[in-house]
Every structure is written in structure tokens, then in C-alpha cells.
Design brief:
The protein has one helix and two strands. It is an alpha+beta fold. A hairpin with a 2-residue loop joins strand 1 and strand 2.
């Protein structure tokens, strides 16, 4: 089995950390904080 996903490039920066994908490392840190506090 195979999944093929295609689309237009977003032309935005990409930052990833664990299960989160955001635009900046600061957004990654905020996502981890929100998740740990149950807001995500």
C-alpha cells in the first residue's frame, strides 16, 4: 500500500519538533506548552 500526497508549495518556513509542525521554533515551544497544560 502507498499514499501519495501532493500540493502547491507554501513558501513558508517549517519547524518541527516531536509530533508538532509549525512555522517557527517559538511556535513549537508554545505547542508543547499548550499540550502539556491540556489546551491543545
Amino acid at each position: 500500500r502507498m499514499i501519495l500526497v501532493a500540493g502547491e508549495p507554501l513558501d513558508e518556513p517549517i519547524a518541527r519538533g516531536g509530533p508538532f509542525v509549525m512555522n517557527t521554533q517559538d511556535e513549537i515551544k508554545q505547542a508543547f506548552s499548550d499540550y502539556q497544560e491540556g489546551r491543545f
